[in-house]
Amino acid sequence: MGRAQEVFERLQNSPHFAEDELGLFHGRFLFIDREEIEGKCIARFGQPSDAKTDRPHRYVLVATQVIEQSLDLDFDLMISDLAPVDLLLQRSGRLHRHEDRTNRPAQLTEPTLWLIAPEIDEKGKTDFGDSGFIYDRHVLLRTWLALRDRTTISLPSSMDALIEAAYNLDSLPSESLEPIHVEDWQNSLTQHRQDQSAYRSLAQKVYLPSARGKHKPCDFTRGNEEDDDNTIMAVTRLGEQSVTTIFVQRTRAGLILPISQQAIDLNKSPDLETVRALLEHSARISKKRLVEEIIKLKKLDTWTSALLKHCRCVELDATGKAQIGKWELSLDPQRGIVINSA
After folding, report:
1. Residue 3: which residues within 8 A CB-CB, separation 6 or more?
2. pLDDT tens, position by position, for the chain (342 residues)?
């Protein structure tokens, strides 16, 4: 998400684009802002048959994986960092998605995905950049090796072969593969198998009881009351800890919600309407070291609602900033939650 914010900022500073020709969409916006951004994306890139769709003449949307989540959008051209091949294929499904669209640019009559090649470090090893922190290295390596010499992909005919190339762990590297990549293949495969074993162990802790056993309905939703936040967070997404963080802001008049400006009293248990307002001002933070610091924040005794049980509250000062450990957090109307290391 930091990379998306950086790319967006560079485009903003470029003389080639007007302010109304650029947009940013990622998971680090407050929920209330995400809803608005989703609506604007659908209005710009939605179905041409929808009367609400007003497709711009020219527009660049910088987005993370959130763009892949159940939004019926259509783009003329896509530029993507490397990701596992199945996600790239899913991503490419947003290209020329609406067959009844007739006003394509003349040079983009064919669905076109430009893939940004990873850099090579001084030892000749592939550097996957930010993608390496998000996805499994072995799958990324196999994806890159499967795609690097291709110029076209035919769907659906190429799909099975590409998935097989990325995920069939029994297949061996090509005999012509460079030694540095063979070594990387073997080392990353070992790590991949270790990670999968750890994930299976985690699954044993959180699996649902068999529906055929003698269980009460409540057993399917009852968790261990002694489970800590780390265990609960761990089941949200394998390999990535995250925490729902609610943002409030300190003003001279007291605490408010920064977008709606609604006054908030953290010393009182919120009613259902206030719980909804609080969650609208939340975002899931998944930056590992920052998550560890946020989890240290004291739980609010007044947040007894199940919807707030595992949330943490971050208080912004009058300038819209908060210091959490070595991290400075701020809210930017165009970039969302900005995280800087002190």
Report:
1. 81, 129, 130
2. 889 999 999 999 999 999 999 999 999 999 999 999 999 999 999 998 887 889 999 999 999 988 887 789 999 999 999 999 999 999 999 999 998 888 889 999 999 999 999 999 988 899 999 899 889 999 999 999 999 999 888 888 899 999 999 999 999 999 999 999 999 999 999 999 999 998 888 777 767 666 666 666 665 555 554 455 554 444 444 556 899 999 999 999 999 999 999 999 999 999 999 999 999 999 999 888 899 999 999 889 999 999 999 999 999 999 999 999 999 999 999 999 999 986
Distance CA 80, CA 13 (A): 21
How many angstroms separate the CA atoms of 281 and 270, rounded? 14
In 3D space, the residue among 105, 35, 37 whose CA is nearest the CA of residue 75 turns out to be 105
Range of the domain at 309: 229-341
Residue type, 303: W
What's the domain count of the chain? 1
**68 occurs within a structural domain:** no
Q: What is the DSSP letter of 68?
A: G
The residues with which 62 forms a beta bridge, in sequence order, are 24
The total number of residues shown for the chain amounts to: 342
Is residue 163 included in any domain, yes or no? no
